[in-house]
Amino acid sequence: MTRRTRQRLFLAAAAVVAAVLAGGLAGLPSFGHATAQDGRILDAVSVPERHITDVVTAVNFDYRGVDTMGEEFIFFAAVAGVILLLGAQPDEAPGHVADAATGRWVPPTSDAVRVLGLALVGPTVLFALYVIAHGHLTPGGGFQGGVVLATAVLLVYLAGEYQHLHGLYPDRAIEGVEAFGAAGYVVIGLAGLALSGSFLANWAPLGTVGHLNSAGSVPLLNVVVGAEIAAGFVLLLSAFLHQTLILRRARAAPGAGR
Amino acid sequence: MTAFVALALVLVAVVGTLVVVIQDPLRQALTVSLFGILLGILFFAVQAPDVALSEIVVGAVALPLMILLALAKIRGGTR
């Protein structure tokens, strides 16, 4: 196909997409005037029915909890895939960073980064636990809190030297936490099946609206999702760091394989 | 409030375009982080704080970091 034909084909296709897009956008309700009924219904029922003050969490972990389970397992599968890809290949072995950059002086981590990194670890963990625990009350939840929790581990790596810390890193335990998080969601769902007659039904006592101990099984789901996401992200980033900083090709010649 | 939403929309559009226009992957990784923060601010302005939180942690922290690490690995032999 010549360049000219390709361009014509692109312009024709772009014109069709633009026409459909313009037609669709013209039919939208004006800014801030949504006409969908679902939002209004959910706004009205989530507090009286489920004692959940954050409607987004009510939707994600209760009204469409099965979808969230699917998303959780997408993440689980993605992490497993990345770890499989980033694991040590047959021709790779642990080496020194200096191997790749001979003769270059590597600056040490500055004191400012180390102090700030270490000082932020505690508040970050606390904030992450707060976001996970208050998912049913305020914006946030297991997913957001889980990622924040994983960044706390990153701060430790940032403050120290990954080369020295990776020996301390309990990868078996973190894999266990991730599996616990994924399995926990299904177990809580099955408990709903056993106790209330349907999978992921909200079976726990609903408690008082606005209290930490409310919203039935939703906070439990937030905790297991938080555990899975935090562990998954830590595994993911550790795999990246390990591949980047530790593993070296055995037959390492600068520019090899390019 | 409308002015704030309009400003956030314009900034998201400008920085989003920058991410596409910039050719160097290293600069792109940093610009995409800024884009994530701006998108988070926009989501917050249109009253979607849940999504804003997700966007900030994933778009502004996790995604650029993975791009940076991947770049570090790819360029490991040449620098």
Q: What count of domains describes the coordinates of chain A?
A: 1
The sequence of SSEs of chain B as H and E is: HHH
Q: Strand percentage of chain B, roughly?
A: under 5%
Helix count of chain B? 3
Write down the domain tally of chain B. 1
Quick recap of the structure?
The complex is a heterodimer of chains A (258) and B (79). Chain A is mostly helical and 258 residues long. Helices cover 65% and strands 2% of the residues of chain A.
Main features:
heterodimer; A: 258 residues; mainly alpha; globular; disordered C terminus; B: 79 residues; 3 helices; 85% helix
Write the layout of secondary structure elements.
The complex is a heterodimer of chains A (258) and B (79).
Chain A: H1 3-26, H2 37-50, H3 55-63, H4 65-86, E1 92-94, H5 111-133, H6 142-159, H7 162-165, H8 171-196, H9 218-245, E2 247-249
Antiparallel strand pairs in A: 1-2
Helix pairs in contact in A: 2-3, 3-4, 4-8, 4-9, 5-6, 6-9, 8-9
Chain B: H1 2-21, H2 25-45, H3 49-74
Helix pairs in contact in B: 1-2, 2-3
Polypeptide structure, described:
Chain A has 258 residues and is mostly helical. Chain A has one domain. Helix content of chain A is 65%, strand content 2%. A two-stranded antiparallel ribbon of chain A has the order 1-2. The longest helix of chain A has 28 residues, at 218-245. Chain A is globular. Chain A starts with a helix and ends in a 9-residue tail after the last strand. Chain B has one domain (2-74). In chain B, helix 2 packs antiparallel against helix 3 (49-74). Chain B is flat, with a radius of gyration of 14 Å. Chain B is mostly helical and 79 residues long. The interface between A and B is medium-sized, with 29 and 20 residues.
